[in-house]
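Think of the structure tokens as a kind of shorthand, similar to the way a musician reads notation: each symbol stands for something richer, in this case the local conformation of the backbone. In the example below we present two proteins back to back. Begin with the first one, reading the sequence and then the tokens, and try to describe in your own words what changes along the chain.
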Amino acid sequence: MFQIKNVTIENIQDNRILLKDFSLVLNEGDKAAVIGEEGNGKSTLLKWIHDESLVSSYAEVSGEKLTRNKTTGYLPQQLPIQERNKTVYTFLNENDLLLETGWEIVNETAMQMFLHTDLIYSEQRMDELSGGEKVKVQLFRIRLENPDVLLLDEPGNDLDIETLEWLEQMILHTQKPVLFISHDEAMLEKTANRIIHIEQLKKKQECRHTIANVNYQTYVRQRNLSFAKQAQQAAGDKREDEKRMERYRRIEQRVNHELHHISRQDPHGGQLLKKKMKAVKSMGKRFERQRENMTMMPEKEESILFFFENTYLPEDKIILNLQMSPFMIADKKLCDMVNLQVFGQDKICIIGKNGSGKTTLMKEIYHSLKDREDIHIGYMPQNYRDLMDMEMTPVEYLSDGTKEMTTKVMTYLGAMKYTSDEMLHRMEDLSSGQQAKLFFLKMNLESCDVLLLDEPTRNFSSLSSPVIRHVLKEFHGCIISVSHDRKYIEEVAETVYVLSETGFVKK
């Protein structure tokens, strides 16, 4: 058993409570998924459970950890800065882990994870790996460490579909308690048997958490039914209240009218009317008490509001005619040939194994298109730092500094559920999901009609992601994307290419 008791997390920057009086017991076989909107404190919770020092710079946390000497294996959402310059071998051999683990176990684990053993002993720097390879290597180290409890922050991010399916099976079949954050609805549906939902209500002034010992589909269904029932009851109570108050006002007005018009020659009648008015006031107080017990409309976090404005490209317009034979990174050949032609309203998704060169290809496409004057390119890289100055605030990043533009930007940020405080935080201090929203806002503000998106939905919550998918599906420009999000591929992509060693294969 692994237990935390009465945990309260406060964001120091804006004195906002993210989580209050949260208690949880994890037992063998638990696969507890933490869900909730971007910036609600999900990652902070996992970091604190693993190592309190990871959150001490930006959060105050109170509560108890009753770990009973159980060890935790923690996968962060992003590779820590101090780990990025290490070689793969140095990273994996921390505390002589590789040296003390038998070759059979190393080899078998690598095979299960589709991780080439050459990479395990590589002198390649962690920062040089693809996003999926970074996640694989970290998961591989956790597997060799064999911890008692798994704490996984977006473990499916950037993984190819093959490895993603292995990960889902690993979570399903391990008897170790697993506490994981995921925005991947398909993964949630397949693996979670407990749901922990962290919410921020009333413009993030109030927090709420729900722990449900059911799978994800059941939780969503029960929550929607409960909210619908409560909303129906609240509407009924409101109608009854309006009828009561209308009756009260009608009686009060009539008695008032009679009091004002009764003859002074009828003191007895006046006394009776005063008593009647007292009874009417008592009726009003009774109705007020009934109002206090009325069913209220359910409180829930609202989804983001977002759409692309005035974007259109002709269907026959040639956007890209890319030919590379072979496709190389430095001296390494990734595939024999790349041949890709894209037109005005195409929605293309590129998939393939981790390390096959998808992100590098997206960078090549971006550099080949960014100076075109007949189209407006919007690029969302896999590594946000490639195009984002993390010392800037969201307002600085999106605005040109004019009062009119700043007002517009703040309105857009509000629609994306940023608080006024968060609009002025450094982007370094925002969650990955909040940073991802900024790319979409920038593309909209700049009227981009060609979108290059490298894993566009990976950091959006299960509430925001359907909105983003719908917006991209209805987009009247061109989308060239890389994604392993199965719902994105199903709902948005019209053409899917697999990048293999020989080149593109249409799926």
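Once you have a description of the first chain, move to the second and do the same.
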Amino acid sequence: MASEIPTVTGRETWHPARLLPTAGIKGQEEQERRATSALLAVMRAVPEFGHALLKELGAPKSRVIDTFAEVRFADAAGKTQIPDGAIVCEHGKRSWTCLVEVKTGTAPLRDEQVASYLDIARDNGFDAVLTISNQITASSAETPVGVDKRKLRKVDLWHLSWWRVITEAVVQSRHRGVSDPDQAWILDELIAYLDHDASGAGGFGDMGDKWVSVRKAAHDGTLRASDDAARVIAERWEEFTQYVCMGLSQDLGQKVTSPRPRKQLSAQRLDELVSGLTERGSLEAPIRVPNAIGDIALRADLRTRQSATSVTFDGPKEMRAKPRINWLLRQLRDSPDDLYVEVHYPNARQTTVGRLGDVRDAPEQLLFEPDPKREPRAFTLTMLRPMGQKRGKDPGSFVRDTRDHAFDFYRDLVQNLKGWQPRAPRSTGVLIDEDEDANEVSEAPAAA
């Protein structure tokens, strides 16, 4: 008979052995080399993850994803260039090849280095260059580097943030799943490695060294659109917005986005953010969760030093005024008293608003005062919180508090809200009997 596994005292405090240890990482170069090798190796070992990461880059779904580290080429001047890696996907007669350039920590991608790799890719018949860094963009098609557009005629340039890589790994592991248990374990080891501070592959650190001065100028009303620091903070806010979206994606297993107006370019979006900062002293962003009742609106008000999270959605279409408000209040039974309820009315700029704690038992306070019978058109629910002042991601920081505020708002409120569902039409109980005289009718049979 097999012996029982002995109980070891203190075993619960032991640290698990890691496939990809972070111990002993010294210096930026070794950090980048380890992160590159770990990612590329796991992309090959766990093809479900690899294909999920490469799908929107145009790579075919090959049986094997071949990956290589520190590939060497000679440039036009005969100088040796060493991109951090290369990826090869082959499916039938189609082959897709890509060079990879990686940065970790706070190191930014360098325009001239990426430009030289685009030249190497073109000269050697590669399809694309992929950059990976902690710089977060709205999509893989947007790049944080500036290169001559002529270099992109034959070679595509893609970008993934490390936070995007981690998000894809988490979603694949926790939500989509990995069919092979050993591969699932390998993917979890990559997540553990990238999640460690020593790997240099993080999410969003802070709002940057311009944050304090811009926050003070916006609060005092002295910030101007010509101030370069305002645009820097607008760029950081865009990164922060994507950071929040991907954090929600990791939790929900669904792609959460920050929608923009159709055809709006990144530069136009930054202009819009700078305008909001200088004119209203605020930063704003929408967040869209699939099938949620409405988009979540994030707003950081630097003048009042408050962060606001809100959601707007349509009200019922088939009730009188007060029952429509009661329909909403019934869904807010467990919501906190300091939630603000705003009611929008048709053909009126004026809205009514009140704290939930004040209107729970007095819904008539939310009726349209000039015309109490006017039916509400839509509702906005808003939660206000003091804005974090510290830098970094520690408790009390702007990044930590604003992120947690958004997550809590979705979890505690938005995911539980249900849109109005019209009642199905009621049967009259009278049917036309085609076998009888056309002028005669019969009652429908009673339901069993």
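Compare your description with these statements about the second chain. DSSP finds eleven helices and 15 strands in the chain.
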